[in-house]
Amino acid sequence: MSEMVIETSNLTRRYGKKISVNNLNLHVPKGSIFGFLGPNGAGKTTTIRMLLGLIRPTSGQIRIFNQTLPKHRMQILRRTGSLVESPSYYGHLSGYENLDVIARLLKVPSKRIDEVLGIVRLTSAAKQSVKGYSLGMKQRLGIAAALLGNPDLLILDEPTNGLDPAGIHEIRALIKELPAQYGITVVVSSHLLGEIDQMATHVGIIERGHLLFQDAIEKLREQNSPKLLLQVDKPLEAKRLLQRAGLQVSMDGDILQMPNQGLAATEDVNRRLIQAGISVYRITEQSRSLEDIFLDFVDKEGSL
Ligand SMILES: Nc1ncnc2c1ncn2[C@@H]1O[C@H](COP(=O)(O)OP(=O)(O)OP(=O)(O)O)[C@@H](O)[C@H]1O
Question: What is the 3-state secondary structure of the chain?
Fold first, then answer.
């Protein structure tokens, strides 16, 4: 079993009668990019605020780096960088100067400012005043600030919210290199599966405060193996024939559907149908996108 950087047990947060986070057992493996996915209002920000010690859980425990919160809050936060809300800056100061203000507070050597500017690809814009930065550049500066203290864990709450595709791409690219190049474990929340799909190694799906799924992202895909779709001239007859052969077949209109069990099995199905005098017009594979899988998990009325 891999080492966990974050482990929560039965983490719960209520606001009055409303339960925003309900018995969450999160496991974030070391070196992962953990995509924390859920529609708006699912409980992502509330969870992240608890992980950062910004609000207290109503019940349940949090362990980060094998230490408990709130007891070891300072030790944990010293190793954790975060970007939770859109960061605010001194607009008249440059990117470098803004980071310098934080570096002095954190007592971080100034050479670290150059390093983090490099990581977020803002070196060439470092001397420009921040009021001229695009939203994407401001978010990257926020990530640079979160990296100043050389964290082992970086927690980003919807870092691409409101960005254009180029801005989203930049953030994704820089997040992807953090574990391998700098040994940082990343938790990144999003309501967009497509975004998580392209960068996460692990995924946790939350809806209405409940964790519906968590595992390596391939496991999410494996759970939903692709189907074969068959178009034939006599679908009912074909269905009965295949079922008599012990195969699992269903019908959607005139299209037969069955699990795809590989090329040999497909060839066998084809041969059986042809030998029974059934014309096979088409056999195709339907692979479900992660988006479909996600929609199976969450409320389809949700704000995705
Ligand atoms: N301070 C608060 N007081 C009352 N209710 C709250 C408070 N903070 C959050 N909630 C409620 O808890 C639920 C979860 O909110 P949360 O912000 O954690 O969701 P989220 O998944 O981060 O969604 P979003 O992407 O919209 O921020 C929501 O129903 C929200 O209204």
Answer: CCCEEEEEEEEEEEECCEEEEEEECCEEECCCEEEEECCCCCCHHHHHHHHCCCCCCCEEEEEECCEEECCCHHHHHHCEEEECCCCCCCCCCEHHHHHHHHHHHHCCCCHHHHHHHHHCCCHHHCCCEHHHCCHHHHHHHHHHHHHCCCCCEEEEECCCCCCCHHHHHHHHHHHHHHHHHHCCEEEEEECCHHHHHCCCCEEEEEECCEEEEEEEHHHHHHCCCCEEEEEECCHHHHHHHHHHCCCCCEEECCEEEEECCCHHHHHHHHHHHHHCCCCEEEEEEECCCHHHHHHHHCCCCCCC
